[in-house]
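Table S7 (text form). Paired inputs.
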Amino acid sequence: MVPSAGAHEQAVHSIQQTLARGNEYRYLAEAIEEGHISGDGRFTRLCHALLEQELGVRKVLLTTSCTHALEMAALLLRIQPGTR
């Protein structure tokens, strides 16, 4: 707990700490039961559909890291060595 500006205290969440507040454990069990715990499975497709609908975009691409996202952007933009 970290004191806030007022008399109240608020909880601080560490990014290294697992935070489960809903159906996460059930979804994890479903993925294990289905035998697909990596990307491009049912939950990835559900996430794509949700983000596309909420953002009003035609296509959403999820990546496993920021590095992969930057590499994909460079490929899509056809950036070559020396490109400014």
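Next pair, protein 2 of 2.
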Amino acid sequence: MIVFISQDYSYNPTLAVKRAYAYSKYVVKAGHIPLSPVLLFHGVRDNGSDYFSIITDCFRLIDRCDEVWEFDGDREGHGRVLEREYAKTAGKLVNYISKDVLQKIRPEGGER
């Protein structure tokens, strides 16, 4: 199964990349293929000027995935909310990763 990794980015791009690697490893350990837009676009696209293009590309990626797994549940980033709502309208299962799991897999541990 291909899993789209939905997570916050703009609060701290450097930390977001570290977390994206950890989240991707978590998806792989669960037996699936991770698809992380953070790892695809970080350093390639400008989150400021390319934001709407990036969100549109995320929607296209969600269309190609089997499920969306939502990480970083302690804050509501705008992009993550858009991805969640798009996934629901596209009929994709959205799996919310619990705070207990996040504390175990985040590279820095615990809360932000």
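The beta strands are 2-6, 33-35, 67-70, 93-96.
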